[in-house]
Write a structure and sequence with these properties.
13% strand; 443 residues; binds 5-phosphoarabinonic acid
Length: 443
């Protein structure tokens, strides 16, 4: 397993000299991170997490996952942001967006929006099915999951009675405090811990991600093994550290006016990984009026919608291409005797070759159009490779945040919409803001 930084397509955009010039800053970022002296150093639990995790809880996670798989048809995972994206991204990367169609246990995600139609559909999908719920919230007070859990708690208790419902509800939250922890203890739910020193967007390798991923049938030992390997491979600060090269390259490009990073993958199973990446980097770096804007596409699909812009629109972006070298199942393309579609020139080879040529051709065209391309080479689509790339991105994000001189571990900007929403909804304590907002609206 590996993730390799391929900088070949930065030629003409970024010179060797520029990498050398930024390297002392990378060294500083590394020492801030490993010396735990940088901004946000209370939230570095993820750094050694692949080795340094609660092994007893890990065993309980596997047991709970096996129980859910044996006594349930549906697992409803309730959470938002960092308490949601990692689990969904992992499940869909390993099992595709059609994972539920192929699996005995269906995993549905709720509490990541406030749409009544969305929640009603999930409730309908639970009709006549044996259901378990995993509610995930570090604070326990986030409106979206709290609201969905209120609905599902009642549904479960109406259906199973309080005692059996309690045996089917699993809470992943703070180890000691918060509304959800208090409720879980009172109701007797099995609880799993989000460590104090691991922020939401860095939490996929804690119970936050591990319980849903294991319940979906994937091997979390292998996932952790992949992360361990990355933790070892990227531990030292050297000019050859591919994780640090990625962090350096994106900052060099930002300083040259490329403020948008477009993550591109030629496999739709990466779709939710794009979303996970966008949260990790967007929330970590977009602050103090700085940052790269993380955007994403799936090619070749989006070449037919966004391709025009990437090739020919405003020159403000670079691409980071995830090249997954091996598909899980290749498809051999046979020749057709009539060749009515004229596609026999593609026959007698695997479809992955066609996809790979589409990727090569696109990278070259985009570079010609003035879009620098970073390529991250990934070996395959299994749990080990996934654990490896998760850690790669987490560590690169921390180094990149320090290169930007921001605190990569806080998210002060997330509060603003909540204040307005609570004020408009008439939450006690928000009367003054409510008055001001209503005046703005009526003006
Ligand atoms: O990265 C983060 O910290 C956020 O995305 C949170 O994970 C998200 O807001 C959910 O918070 P909580 O787990 O407290 O419900």
């Amino acid at each position: 397993m590996a993730v390799k930084f391929n900088g070949r397509y930065l030629d003409g955009f970024v010179s060797r000299q520029e990498f050398d010039n930024i390297y002392p800053q990378v060294q500083l970022g590394h020492s801030l991170l490993h010396g735990k002296t940088g901004a946000g150093n209370d939230y570095l639990g993820w750094l050694n997490l692949p080795f340094d995790y609660d092994k007893r809880e890990f065993g309980r996670i596997k047991k709970a996952a096996a129980k859910i798989r044996s006594d349930s048809d549906v697992l409803v995972v309730i959470g938002i942001g960092g308490s949601y994206l990692g689990a969904r991204a992992a499940i869909e990367f390993l099992g595709s967006q059609y994972h539920n169609e192929f699996s005995g246990l269906k995993v549905y995600f709720a509490g990541n929006n406030i749409s009544p139609d969305y929640l009603n559909r999930i409730i309908r999908l639970c009709e006549g099915k044996r259901v378990s719920v995993n509610v995930i919230s570090k604070s326990g007070t986030t409106t979206e999951p709290a609201l969905a859990f209120r609905v599902f708690k009642k549904l479960m208790e109406d259906r199973y009675g309080k005692a059996e419902a309690a045996g089917r509800i699993y809470a992943t939250t703070d180890k000691a405090k918060g509304t959800l922890k208090t409720l879980a203890d009172k109701e007797g739910y099995e609880t799993f811990v989000i460590p104090d020193d691991v922020g939401g967007r860095y939490s996929v390798l804690t119970a936050v991600g591990l319980l849903p991923i294991a319940a979906a049938g994937f091997d979390i030992d292998k996932l952790m093994h992949g992360a361990q390997q990355a933790c070892k491979d990227f531990a030292d600060c050297t000019p050859d550290n591919d994780c640090y090269k990625y962090a350096a390259a994106r900052n060099i490009l930002l300083r040259k006016g490329k403020a948008i990073e477009l993550m591109a993958c030629y496999d739709p199973d990466w779709t939710m990984m794009n979303e996970w990446f966008k949260q990790l980097y967007g929330e970590s770096e977009g602050k103090d009026k700085k940052g790269l804007f993380p955007a994403s596409v799936i090619f070749s699909t989006d070449l037919h919608s966004m391709g025009q812009f990437v090739q020919d629109g405003s020159r403000t972006m670079f691409e980071t291409v995830i090249n997954i070298r091996k598909p899980v199942n290749d498809l051999f393309l046979e020749a057709d005797a009539e060749n009515a579609d004229g596609l026999n020139f593609l026959a007698n080879q695997n479809m992955s070759v066609v996809n790979s040529m589409a990727m090569q051709g696109t990278i070259l065209a985009h570079c010609d159009g003035g879009v620098p391309n970073i390529v991250l080479e990934m070996d395959g689509k299994d749990e080990e490779n996934l654990g490896y790339i998760i850690y790669f991105f987490e560590k690169a994000c921390a180094i990149s945040g320090y290169l930007l001189a921001v605190n990569p571990f806080n998210q002060p900007g997330v509060e603003a919409y909540k204040v307005n929403m609570f004020a408009l909804l008439g939450k006690p304590g928000y009367e003054k803001q409510r008055e001001e907002l209503l005046k703005k609206i009526s003006d």
